[in-house]
Design a protein that fits this description.
Blueprint: H1 2-25, H2 31-84, E1 99-102, E2 115-120, E3 128-135, E4 142-146, E5 165-169, E6 180-190, E7 194-200, H3 222-225, E8 229-232, E9 234-241, E10 262-267, E11 270-275, E12 278-287, H4 307-310, E13 313-323, E14 361-369, H5 377-380
Antiparallel strand pairs: 1-2, 2-9, 3-4, 3-8, 4-7, 5-6, 5-8, 6-7, 9-10, 10-11, 12-13, 13-14
Length: about 375
Amino acid sequence: MNNKKRFKDKRTIWLSFRYKQKKRDHAGFTLTEILVSSSIMLVVILGALAFYARSNRVTVDQQQYAELQHDVRSAMYLLTRDIRMAGVGLPEEFFLYALEGVNNEDQGGEVKPDRIRILGNLEDPLNLTIDQYQGGQGGGAVDIKVNDGSFEQYPYPLEFYDDKIVLILPNPKSSCRTGAIRKITHVTWNTGGTNEGFNTSPGLAPGMNPPGGLTGDSPCSPDDFDSGLVMFVNVKEFWLDVTGKYPNLTPGVKGYLGEPGVLYMTNNGIHYPLAQNIENFQLEYNGDLDDDGFLDGFKPWDENWTDDQITRIRQVRIYLLGRTPNRFVSVSGQVPKNIYHYRRPEISDSPGTGTDDYHRRFLLETTVNIRNLNLNLYNTGQR
């Protein structure tokens, strides 16, 4: 009997425990608990979103800055490569045609960039001696006879010469120093390499703007060109379009984009965009211009320099300033004083600005030794 009672008491206690346990399981959370937990979760979510937004802004800023650096460095590589080769193929007597600058060109904007023209046999090698030069007076077409076997020195098929631009130079021993740039219409050639020559179109090759005042109608006499030179030539011009509305250029024609901040290389009249988001382009030149045996130091281009002074230029210093296309969104408040990453700096003789616009800048500077004019640099002058 006692055992049954004890069993009944235990069963009663167990059932009571289970009842309380079920009641507790179905009780749920109180309103206070829900509000507290929701507030904590909201703070965590907002903190994560704020961290993500901040990280995303920094990532976007750094990405556009990295792209800007890439554009500036790529353009600088092409600039230095070609400027270093200015004058290649030219006899020393004609170095006045190697380069020509423009200082602070006024395009109607606040920034006034420089530009530089270079000339030389930069792409395809060709250097042939003229046997006989006929025509050319009054801007007419020219027939150029070269020595027999001349074409056989180069691996070009005859059709390769058609429409190529050539520089025709007088005999360096003559007193004439004015050459001509023309376009080849066709070549003549007999089996066995005889009767070789060029026929060229009248006047200056179209779309060309060579340095040194080269014209299509040279004042030299035909006799001055006998024993002169004929070579393929590239007239390259590096310039910055500040406004995107450059005078006398039409967007979509000959490679011109019509967008501001684009650095171009114009090669024989065709415009090739090199980089975008470029804000300023400045150049300085160094040489023994006063002929005292010492390099004079870097100066902006002076339009009053004589041909003789231009032939003594040995170095070009290049400044290329890029600007991010968008403001740096990760910069909040005011930019710290005396930090000029977010304003246009002064470069050479091009003034800067004292106003921050929150666009990040990247300035790259380098100096190029002009290889073909520079052979005696260390013997005749000092840095």
